[in-house]
Every structure is written in C-alpha cells, then in structure tokens.
Write a structure and sequence with these properties.
By secondary structure, this protein is an all-alpha fold. The chain is built from three helices and no strands.
C-alpha cells in the first residue's frame, strides 16, 4: 500500500495579514508606555533603596514614594 501526500500552496489569508498589521501597530503604540513604566519602576526602586534619612533630606516620606513618582501621571 502506498501513501502519498500533496502539499497545497499556502493560500492568501487576508485575516492573518490584517491581524499582523494591527498587532504591529498595537505594539508600536505600547512602546512609549512601556518605556515610561520602566523609568518609573527604576525611580521607585532607587528611592526605596535609600535610607529614611536620605529620603527625609529630599523631603520624601517612604509611604509617598509611588505618589511622588507617578504625580502628574495618575494623581491629579
């Protein structure tokens, strides 16, 4: 008994192309937000690594670090 397979040429798939284009646009739109989030994360980590005395010298309380970093972004 012989088995044979035929491979059909890849068909044009409009939905796949539309999905790929929209995904590319979506990723491009997210990059600036990702960069801002990464910068905020770094700043928060830096401030949290400081001693309470260092924070006090900067006029920041430890519990206000996130609000200080994100002021103007989320907090009015």
């Amino acid at each position: 008994m012989a088995y044979s397979t035929t491979k059909s040429p890849r068909s044009f798939n409009l939905m796949r192309m539309i999905h790929a284009a929209l995904a590319t646009i979506g990723h491009a739109m997210m990059r600036p937000g990702d960069a801002r989030a990464e910068a905020a994360r770094r700043q928060i980590n830096h401030l949290q690594s400081l001693s309470d005395a260092d924070l006090a010298a900067r006029g920041i309380r430890r519990e206000d670090i996130q609000m200080r970093v994100f002021s103007g972004h989320f907090y009015g």
